[in-house]
Each structure stands twice: as structure tokens, then as C-alpha cells.
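Question (not urgent): is this output format expected?
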Amino acid sequence: MKVNNRHRITLRVTLVGSVVNCLLAGLQISCGLLGKSQALLADGLHTLSDLSTDFIVLYAAKRAAKEADADHPYGHGRIETLASLLLGAILAAVGIGIGLRGFESIINPQQGDPEAITILFAFIAIVAKEGLYRYTLRAARSVHSNLLESNAWHHRSDALSAIVVVIGISAQVLGVPHMDALAAIIVGAMIILMGFRLCRNALNELIDTGLDFSLVDNVRAAMQADASVVSIHNLRTRSMGGQGYIDAHLVVDSDLTVSEAHYIAHKIEARVKKQFPKIIDVQIHIDPLDDAIKDSVLAALPERDVIEADLRQAWEGIPEASRVDQIKLHYLDKLVEIDLILPVSMCRPAQEIGIGNLRSSAANLDYVGKVNIYYVD
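Got this back:
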């Protein structure tokens, strides 16, 4: 999904949440004060804190939507991650404050039982928050945004805390002492746990924790399904702002041309992105041989400059050597395979002995395996 469209959806969803939170917070706080309910007042303050987190989401989404630049070649997705971390910290702080206020109310009760009407407003909060949760989560999953999903679960925690508020107020109205304050403490504990969960997820992303194992297995299977892929190794994944990034090494037939191998890489990249919308970046490294033997290959086989110098020395006195248009090298497991490209005019019986000398002289080098002769116009 394009960055601008992702930002537009995030903006719309967050603004809707802000309006609902503003209206709901006003109702909860005023009714909590008038109806003498510690739990409803605590829930209202929690809802009011949601407005500050909505502003954080809006700011982070706008900044994260910026395209990659020279200073940020991988884009600005980490801003969403940092905002999620801040969101979790704010939630935990709010939860601690609410819990402490509830304990204080139990130790030093200063008001009477809450009014029954406060139960109605707690029910309104349940409906409003559950609606926001479903609306925001659906949008978060459509654009693969951890930040929006964090805000969605924030709404769900609000709905659950409102249920606790209803139970607490109802119990105290029926004559069970301290239940309103106890409900406020439970609400605080739930908010703290939600904050810790958001912080943990954000920290996992900041230290480049890999994507879900099942998703990675499915991506590997999709890559392996291509007939050109011999094997896959060094498959690494990470997340940034809720979107997936993948690096992979694909082993292909060593006889493929560079352009065909490049085509295969682009084909697999497009397939992965289409099949798994959460993945927005796929970096593929093509290997004509397994990286497990690369050290031995580098140690045993010389580079092109050395090979060309050895060939010139081996071909001294062979006139046909001056007619070689191109030398192609194939670095295999333990030997180098050489392709000699000659003009088609040399494909004549009179040149057979000289060309045979080219092939045999090259093949006598210790590190050379097969020598192929090709003619081109």
C-alpha cells in the first residue's frame, strides 16, 4: 500500500477516535463527579488521556509517511515504533495514577456510594469503546500499521475497563463496600498491563526481532515454489512500523546469465509482495553456489586478472589466441569453467588445431575445469 494512502487512512481513523473520546470523556468525568463514582471518574480521566495519545498517533503517522531521503534511506517507519513505545509508557503511567487513587479512596473514603445513573454512562462507554476498537483494528490490519493496532487495543482496554466499572458501581449500589474504588484499581492494573504490552512490542521491533514464524515459513515456501530456485538460505526478516522487510539468498543454476538471474529475483520479489501485503521490501541476493563453500572458493580460485594473465602465458605461440573476443568465467565448487568466445569466421577446419591448442592449454591450468568454445557473428 502506498505511503500517502496509508497516512490518509490513519488520519481519518484517528480523528474519528479523537472526536468520540472527547465527547465520551466529558460525559464520564462530569457524571463521575456528579454521581460520586471513583471508577467512572477514573475511566473518564483514562479516556481523556486517550486524546493525548491520539495526537501522538497523528504526529507519528504524518512523520512516518515521509518518503525515504538521503539521511533516512530506509524511510521513517521507526517513528511509528517510537510513538508506540511512548503510547505504552503513557498508558502505564495513567494506570499507576488511577490505581493509587483507588487505593487512597479505600484507605481514606471521602464520599458516599455512587449514584445508580452512573451505570448508564459506563454502559455508553462500553459501546463507544468497543466500536472504536473494531473500527480501528480493521483499518490497522488493512494498512499493516502497528501504531494503529496499538491504538485499537487501547480502545479495547477501555471497553474492558468500562465493564469493570459497571460491575464495581453496580456492586456498591447494591451495598457492597469499596467496590467502586476496587473497580478503579482493577481498571488501573489493566491499563498498566496494556501499556507494558505495547512497550514490549515496540522494543521488539526496535531491536529488529524477526517476523512471525508462520509468516516467514509461508514466504520461504513461496520463494521455493519457483522452479529456478535451487535452495534458500540467510532468510532474514524484520519489522518497521508494522511492515515487513525481508533479505534472502537464493541459490540458482550457475549457468544462468546475470540478466536472467536478475529477472528471477524481480519475479520472486513481486510474487512475495503480492501474496503477502504486509511485506513491503524484499532484497534478494542471487548465489550461483552455496554460501557455505564461498570461503573455500575464494581461497582456492584466483580472480579474473590472474586467470587472464595465466591464459596469456599458456597461449604464447598460439596465433588463434589473438582472435578470442571474450572470456567468460564460471566459478564452480572447486574449479573455474571457461567459455571462449570466438568469431564465427574461425569455425573452419583449418582452425581446428589452433583452437584445440587454446582449449588444451587453458585446461592444463590447475584450477580450470571444462573449457567451452563458442562462435558468434
